[in-house]
Design goal:
With about 200 residues, the protein is of the alpha/beta class. Helices cover about 35% and strands about 20% of the residues. Helix 3 links the parallel strand 4 and strand 5. The strands form two sheets. The protein has a six-stranded mixed beta sheet with strand order 1-8-7-4-5-6, with helices on both faces. A two-stranded antiparallel ribbon has the order 2-3.
């Protein structure tokens, strides 16, 4: 009798272990990091022009009180980065995003969307990491997050999106930008669509 109980318990344990074998949330919990957020794995997706959803419509105030909207960016390829200051991967990728924003200055606008912090915290972060572009402060309304959720949900922070000249999401990096060349290639591909 005890052998049957042990065998059944073993089978249940194996079944449960199989359920979490490829579950990144379970892995993050198991490693005991206590990080308090879901980190993306750096996976990236490029969406062919014919498969892109409708244009994203959004509006929000940046850390200086200026309005940034899909209307003000209309007709341009642009990059949107969802972040917050205490997110370790956000801090890690900030210098790379800042460098790319500087490289594309005047050609491709970059816009941050801060999902958690006040304007003061966002300003301090930008000064510390040399971020040259504005960030919409979206913590209290989540309206910009919701606007983008209809097309490509930014379910991991950081998430970086490339938006085409028609206002449609064309590419996504979920998690840490591990290599500047990936985002640069995505941006250049979308820019080339207009040529």
């Amino acid at each position: 009798m005890n052998l049957r109980v042990l065998a059944a318990a073993g089978a249940v344990a194996l079944l449960l272990a199989g359920c979490t074998a490829n579950d990144s949330l379970a892995d993050q919990y198991a490693d005991g990091s206590g990080q308090g957020y879901i980190s993306g794995d750096g996976a990236y997706t490029e969406i062919p022009a014919a498969d892109r959803d409708e244009p994203i419509v959004f509006e929000g105030a940046d850390e200086h009180g200026n309005t940034i909207s899909s209307e003000s960016l209309a007709g341009q390829v642009y990059v949107v980065n969802f972040w917050y200051a205490s997110c370790p991967p956000c801090r890690l990728e900030a210098p790379d995003l800042a460098a790319l924003a500087t490289d594309y200055d005047g050609e491709v606008p970059f816009v941050g969307v801060n999902v958690s912090d006040s304007a003061d915290v966002a300003i301090t972060f930008a000064e510390r990491f040399g971020v040259p572009y504005p960030s919409i402060i979206d913590a209290s309304t989540a309206s910009v997050q919701l606007a983008f959720a209809g097309a490509v949900a930014p379910n991991a922070v950081p998430t970086t999106l490339v938006v085409d000249a028609e206002g449609r999401v064309a590419a996504r990096i979920s998690g840490l930008l591990r290599d500047q060349s990936i985002l640069k290639s995505m941006v250049d591909t979308v820019l080339a669509e207009d040529d």
